Amino acid sequence: MHLKDPLLDQLITKPPLSHDELRDVTELALWAGQLLLQHGAEAARVEETVHRLGTGLGCDWMDILVSPNVIIVTAVSGEEFRTRVRRVANIGVNLSIVSEVSDVSRGVAEGRLNRAKVRTALRRIGKLPHRYNRWLVAFMVGLACASFSRLFGGDWAVFGVTFGAASVAQVVRQELVRRYFNTLLVVISTAFVAGVIA
To answer: pTM (2 decimals)?
Structure first.
């Protein structure tokens, strides 16, 4: 007795994409993956979202490799396959963008979005602010560090000093990064400032 696999049936019945359609789907999937990786998504989420988006737009299968600053995608449709690489620069954190891109991929999986609507949505998401307000970031870094001081047994005076030192060090870090200082120098300078203040 032969058991039927619904996933296999779906792959077999899916019409193959043309050369241009496959290229377009691959580009859209890579664009979504780039936005995710640029704004703090973990590798597993990038892989899942890119795969969902590509297969939802007509690919039979997608293989995705995510490294800290590069995404490699191989898309398969019928007898055709395309492999593309996208370098990711300006990595930061903005979880609103991560959430928006994930919503787009879910819309594709549910059949609500086609390639044109995905392109429009990714353009809109790409125009959103890429960074949180720098003062908010400095405040939150200070609060996080100060909270750790309380978790490790510090009193409220230690909390206040840690908050101030971490917040000022974060502002120094932001300024050094903005001026393209060497990464190692940024880390050393930031730690030095925080240590001197504390």
So the answer is: 0.73
